């Protein structure tokens, strides 16, 4: 059974991430004086530091993902994916999940790559499985987890197993219940008659501007939540096993930490159980505030509103089961 690419839907021009980013920049210029005064407070300086760190940390991986996505769109023939993946989508899902090991990047790069795969005719369920697994099970992330949890190899194994299982289960659920019209890829210029290298750079520019705007919006939101969530709330929840797991899963969504650095944050939350910290490590690379904005920009808002709760619920449940067995 073969799959054709999801057809981009052309709609009326609406305010998107680029326009929103331009509006924010204009507001910053106009309100420069009051903003300088406002940023004298410790909370504002913390907010600015977190926002800049999120964007700077994510930007290289976003660019990497955009380059890979453009290369897939321009240079890789559709026949390659027909040969590389099983023809049955149900079998393509676990192959895509394990293939995530090969991409040494973070979640910001996997979103545009998954969009490029869907454009090239890969079954959406397989592309989404790859999107979830790549930032959580690649060698860089696993080594970072081993360094953050010295003497606890079971934590590395639990993260790998829980992340791969979550990605595959979400892929199968999307294959069973998902609908093609829930995915709305942004309209791209027709590059079919353009020389390949010209088409490559036009594709890079289009995707970088589009995804970068949503990255900034997600970073702004995540920084605000970082400043406003009191740490004492976490300390009060640590003694409640069920609430502790939910609390760290939600914290992973709010903090929007890169998957290559989140293990060190999880290790520092020593008042929480290993299972709760596993939930933090599994949920974060798959769905957070930053990723939600980027997924909405790449696949459409309707997709993100359905996909995010599915991923969060599955990741928490699989983390609990995996933690009870391996930790």
TrEMBL record:
The chain crosses the membrane at residues 20-39, 51-76, 88-105, 125-149, 156-175, 208-229, 241-257, 303-326. It comes from the Bacteria. It is a multi-pass membrane protein. Keywords: Cell membrane, Membrane, Transmembrane, Transmembrane helix. InterPro entries: DUF318, UPF0718. The keyword Transport does not apply. It is found in: Cell membrane. It holds the Pfam family ArsP_1. Coiled coil: none annotated. GO terms for cellular component: plasma membrane. The keyword Transmembrane applies. Belongs to the UPF0718 family. This is Putative permease.
């Amino acid at each position: 059974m073969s799959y054709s690419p999801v057809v981009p839907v052309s709609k009326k021009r609406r305010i998107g991430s680029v326009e929103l980013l331009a509006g924010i920049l204009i507001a910053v210029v106009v309100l420069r004086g009051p903003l300088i005064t406002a940023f004298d407070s410790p909370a504002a300086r913390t907010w600015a530091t977190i926002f800049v760190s999120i964007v700077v940390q994510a930007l290289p991986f976003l660019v990497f993902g955009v380059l890979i996505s453009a290369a897939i769109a321009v240079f890789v023939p559709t026949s390659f994916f027909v040969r590389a993946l099983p023809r049955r989508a149900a079998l393509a899902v676990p192959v895509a999940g394990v293939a995530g090991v090969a991409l040494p990047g973070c979640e910001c790069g996997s979103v545009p790559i998954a969009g490029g795969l869907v454009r090239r005719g890969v079954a959406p369920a397989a592309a989404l499985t790859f999107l979830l697994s790549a930032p959580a099970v690649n060698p860089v992330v696993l080594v970072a987890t081993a360094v953050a949890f010295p003497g606890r190899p079971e934590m590395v194994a639990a993260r790998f197993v829980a992340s791969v299982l979550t990605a595959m289960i979400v892929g199968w659920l999307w294959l069973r219940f998902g609908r093609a019209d829930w995915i709305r890829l942004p309209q791209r210029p027709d590059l079919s008659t353009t020389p390949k290298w010209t088409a490559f750079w036009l594709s890079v520019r289009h995707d970088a501007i589009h995804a970068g705007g949503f990255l900034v919006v997600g970073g702004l939101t995540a920084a605000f939540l970082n400043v406003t969530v009191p740490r004492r709330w976490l300390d009060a929840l640590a003694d409640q096993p069920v609430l502790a797991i939910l609390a760290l899963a939600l914290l992973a969504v709010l903090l929007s930490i890169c998957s290559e650095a989140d293990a060190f944050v999880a290790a520092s939350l020593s008042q929480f159980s290993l299972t709760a910290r596993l939930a933090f490590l599994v949920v974060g690379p798959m769905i957070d505030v930053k990723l939600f904005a980027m997924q909405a920009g790449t696949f459409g808002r309707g997709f993100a509103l359905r996909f995010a709760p599915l991923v969060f619920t599955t990741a928490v449940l699989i983390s609990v089961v995996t933690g009870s067995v391996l930790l």
